[in-house]
Design a protein that fits this description.
Layout lengths: L1 H9 L5 H23 L8 H19 L11 H31 L1
């Protein structure tokens, strides 16, 4: 997913700051998982992260496919993609904060 976000920034279909926030969240959660596992702590995936992933995949697909043969569809893939990116961004921040809090509660 990280490489897809970078490609979308390069294609000028996604703002760099949005991609940076989402990429930083991914590295943060991955880092927390590594530290948690080293302490034998398992932090299960939560609904917010799963919804974020679904929104992110939908957004990336729409933004990559816009300008293709699918442009004949009666709706604008760019608008749909950007809407889902905003949803994914909010869920990314919220689930990242929740994951961090959950980690710190279990570490203490």
């Amino acid at each position: 997913m990280i490489s897809a976000l970078i490609v979308l920034v390069d294609m000028a279909r996604l703002s760099a700051w949005v991609a940076i926030i989402m990429i930083v969240r991914e590295f943060l959660v991955t880092g927390i998982r590594v530290v948690a596992l080293s302490k034998d702590i398992v932090i299960p995936a939560e609904t917010g992260g799963k919804l974020k992933t679904g929104a992110q995949i939908t957004a990336v697909l729409c933004l990559i496919l816009m300008g293709s043969i699918l442009d004949t569809l009666p709706f604008d893939l760019y608008d749909i993609g950007i809407t889902f990116i905003w949803i994914a961004l909010v869920l990314s921040i919220l689930s990242g904060v929740k994951y961090t809090i959950s980690f710190w509660k279990r570490v203490r």
